[in-house]
Amino acid sequence: MADDSAATPPSIDGNTLVAKSLSHLGVTHMFGVVGIPVTSLATRAMALGIRFIAFHNEQSAGYAASAYGYLTGKPGILLTVSGPGCVHGLAGLSNAWANTWPMVMISGSCDQRDAGRGDFQELDQIEAVKAFSKLSEKARDVREIPNCVSRVLNRAGSGRPGGCYLDLPSDVLRQRIVESEADDLVAKVGTFNEHVTSARASEIESAVTLLRKAERPLIVFGKGAAYSRAEDELKKLVELTGIPFLPTPMGKGLLPDTHELSATAARSLAIGKCDVALVVGARLNWLLHFGEAPKWSKDVNFVLVDVSEEEIELRKPRLGIVGDAKTVVGLLNREIKDDPFCLGKTNPWVEAISKKARENGEKMELQLAKDVVPFNFLTPMRIIRDAILAVEGPSPVVVSEGANTMDVGRSVLVQREPRTRLDAGTWGTMGVGLGYCIAAAVACPDRLVVAVEGDSGFGFSAMEVETLVRYNLPVVVIVFNNGGVYGGDRRSPEEISGPHKEDPAPTSFVPNAGYHKLIEAFGGKGYIVETPDELKAALSESFAARKPAVVNVIIDPFAGAESGRLQHKN
């Protein structure tokens, strides 16, 4: 009998070619929800050494992919099914767009021959993602896959990072190609290279001149500087010049919150009185009051460092420098080193900032020193702060989500290392918590992950505690349980009327809900705490174990207040 094997060279399908392309381009992790037509893609990716983290919901998986991109500097990959899976994934893609983090969403789609005929989960997905995608590609033939994968990965991380989209029709995933030809196509695509714009020497000189001549200079930095890994350069700049600094919420930790030149506890004074503000990797959006009076002085001169020329044109600063934060700050340091200047501790501006920060810090500590039971927000937050600071080794990654919980946590929790705080971000997105936890756990495997969540924020993605248990991730989720959004029923008697007045208030949940029991159902550890000693014991045990856990902290339902924007009172 003739052997036909030599006449039939081995072949692979589109699923395997996608996996090979991703692996070749350096992808090591994927997040998603599988189903028709992408289950085989996830399986093939795992076989090639890519870790696939399977979620219950594409929203959480998308939030994880976006945060992974921020934490690692490499595009996070989200895999979804077609139609509704793609739509659910838009939560993550839009989050990457809003926060300018690199991410690629890959979705299966219907057979090309059936497009427009009402096929299973049919949707024009290229059109659906348009508002949030820097680049959208559709592989129309199996041979197009490697180039499509390369283009979306490269675009996601180039210039201002953001989300990109890759559409994979079912028929393309089923198509076969000779393996040797597939390997040749993969070998020809370029590996991921981050695009960096160089600042002009004249811009660097002008920026240094403005800082040198300023009477009340301030350095502001945000998560763009954190993404750029600019912490060493910023530390050198602050120590060279003696200029006070102010991080945005996710810029916290680039320099320790405890640094003597930190203006965080004197924020209102710092931004209200500074005459020159060097803003590095932070946008002058609502988080920074648009850089406008009355929060800022009407005469302040902004020096804005951003990777996006469009952002600088939008804000119209006194001086704009287009470039990577790490690179630009390094150039500023070099220019200052040739002709150094330093404000010094006795400089009136530095003294004023230090005095105000010290006064506000002392006021906060007086409030935190009280053990209030039933718990308000401050007492458990102080205990959590102290427990996190006591962790030996690398600082835990803190995920903060909620209204009052996040606001109080931003003021109380202390960040000592870069990229160790993840919160609702530029969009103020609720529901990111568990996805961010999972991303942090896989991106930073040497760190404990501690989520400090409001009960409302936790509810968006609570089912993902099963994912924590399934992958045995070192995540402790602390839920501030005050019975609802802002704290249960806050209606006045006059507001309780109408035919449905017996229904619960729109803001209220089941009182004293047993959130800790949810993780116990899957084999994780749950705690319910109502006193300082109970909370301390739960944190000590769970932090030491570094296993999936939920700590259900019962809060006085009347302790919180309605919150939506950052309320800075210092």
From TrEMBL:
GO terms for cellular component: peroxisome. Residues 204-329 form the Thiamine pyrophosphate enzyme central domain. InterPro entries: DHS-like_NAD/FAD-binding_dom (IPR029035), HACL1-like (IPR045025), THDP-binding (IPR029061), Thiamin_PyroP_enz_cen_dom (IPR012000), Thiamin_PyroP_enz_TPP-bd_dom (IPR012001), TPP-bd_CS (IPR000399), TPP_enzyme_TPP-bd (IPR011766). It holds the Pfam family TPP_enzyme_M. One of its GO terms (biological process) is fatty acid alpha-oxidation. It catalyses: an (R)-2-hydroxy-long-chain-fatty acyl-CoA = a long-chain fatty aldehyde + formyl-CoA; a 2-hydroxy-3-methyl fatty acyl-CoA = a 2-methyl-branched fatty aldehyde + formyl-CoA. Its cofactor is thiamine diphosphate; Mg(2+). One of its GO terms (molecular function) is 2-hydroxyacyl-CoA lyase activity. Homotetramer. Belongs to the TPP enzyme family. This is 2-hydroxyacyl-CoA lyase. It comes from Brassica napus.
